[in-house]
């Protein structure tokens, strides 16, 4: 039986016959066993035992004894192959830049100590694969011996290849990962990147009031929270080293304010050139308003709609006042040539997941821009695959991650496999490889991505229990036409009436305009059946904004409440979310009490990411503390009613920040009411306690001023 076993094993590894007959093992045969023959013999129940003093050389692992798995304590033991990368020509000031060339040379170490030239030469000449080194016998695999022979021939690398290798700490050689370190100026750059990396910007929680002592940012009319100050400092350090950055904080942590503060630091003490902010159309007004609120000294120009122009804009750094141009991805696509022809100090790509497909026309237009500094902003850097992250980071730092194909091969597939459920056919080895790939990817992108969550120790203590933000959206062209027509028709009817009839006409006017602001489908009483989400989002600025809010909320595994004052609009929202693949229940006044509690219990138990609630049904008795986001699709004009609805989520039992989002149609009656509510909430509680009813007492002139569409919105 033993003879049959040995014959079968010899067919897998032919030298076995000679080894058994002679009772000896030469160096070449030992190297073959090291290279994998031992595994083939194991399938035939043949175990290979090695002398305790025999050490294997490997570019990846360095077991203390052959056949044992590598451990963290043994990673420096034995004979190891590693790579050393150095800059060939330093940049200005003796620093390394991505435009510099670099070279990679091979180095052998034994128990962590570099070999002398004589020892390296002996390793290169070990034809049989075994040498005596520092009192121990060492088996050298063919790859290590070959690289020892090639030690005098350095391999040329580009700056991006060199930085990519030293950040991950490994370089792929003949399909095998070899340890890689940097020396000289390149090592200084890596140290600087890691020193300014996300760990410094995410740690050190601030005081309970959310403020920290720090340098005053000239022109900033806001008090930054501690994590925001750290975010600004991280952006400063990373961009000062010549790199772009991705700010990927959770929704609700104030990314826009952080970027505005960074812009002010960037232009401090010098004549800055223009900056460009590219964002979805639903965020145009938000950027304008946030600059006006937090940095009123900065000139902001909207480059969108009819009559847009870049005339008079500074054409180069140092020649202008640092004007900020705000545009949309759609306008960037249409005007790629004029915008690419400008010299920008800074380009900010907001909601950068919009260009997660690097082949899209919008992504290509963005890549045509050549700014001095690139900042990407998104709360959802990865929605479906790591290829999306590659697309964003390849814009902020072109070429750093290599080609998409190479990125997928080296990081994407293995890291995604390790992060998700084990796929059929995957082995334990696959999982280990995937974990290693994820770690390498983390080391590579870590210096250029700042990702903070609301639950992070350095963030959570600084957050208030509730954060309220207004999201101003543009009306679509159909909405604009309907709004203008309804205003002209109904204001005329108001002025021709008096008394109770006039009050009724005013309420009809306000209701019509609010429905138009929601959606043309709402105003025109269109049914939800056969709903096409893409078509309807194009008709309604609010539905487009809702899509942009819900997508990152659900991607993060969070939950949201959507409030509306209209049952008909609630049904349209439900149909819209269903068309997007997000099933949502709708709780309104006509739902029986027993079923209402069932809906609440299901939501609280984690079934469904979104619950639509009519404001009337949200008056009392609802405990919806699972929701971390409250979206007022059409904001109640009675502050007490609004607070009552919001408090369905923001109440005792909620253990997390509640982010409240108001969707407001820019340049309309909604925007003017929002301004009134913001000016002095205490006063509005007295004036608008009756909501729309209180507005029926306005004079004709006051009513016309309240409901007339602003010129900016009409031209958009």
3D architecture notes:
The protein is α/β, with parallel strands linked by helices and 716 residues long. It contains 29 helices and 22 strands. The strands form four sheets. The protein has a seven-stranded parallel beta sheet with strand order 12-13-11-14-15-10-16, sandwiched between helices. Helix 14 links the parallel strand 14 (346-350) and strand 15. Helix 21 (533-539) crosses helix 22. The longest helix has 20 residues, at 499-518. Mean pLDDT is 80; it is low at 58-76, 204-212, 418-434 and 682-689.
Write the topology of this structure.
Layout lengths: L1 H11 L2 H8 L4 H16 L12 E3 L21 E9 L14 E9 L2 E2 L2 H8 L5 E4 L2 E5 L1 H8 L5 E3 L1 H10 L1 E4 L2 E7 L1 H12 L2 H5 L23 H15 L4 E3 L7 H13 L7 E5 L4 H11 L5 E3 L21 E5 H6 L1 H5 L5 E5 L10 H8 L4 E5 L8 H11 L7 H16 L8 H18 L3 E2 L15 E8 L3 H19 L3 H20 L1 H4 L9 H7 L1 H15 L4 E5 L2 H13 L4 E4 L5 H12 L5 E5 L14 E4 L6 H8 L11 E8 L3 H11 L1 H7 L12 H8 L3 H5 L1
Parallel strand pairs: 1-6, 2-9, 10-15, 10-16, 11-13, 11-14, 12-13, 14-15, 17-22, 18-20, 18-21, 19-20, 21-22
Antiparallel strand pairs: 2-3, 3-4, 3-7, 5-6, 8-9
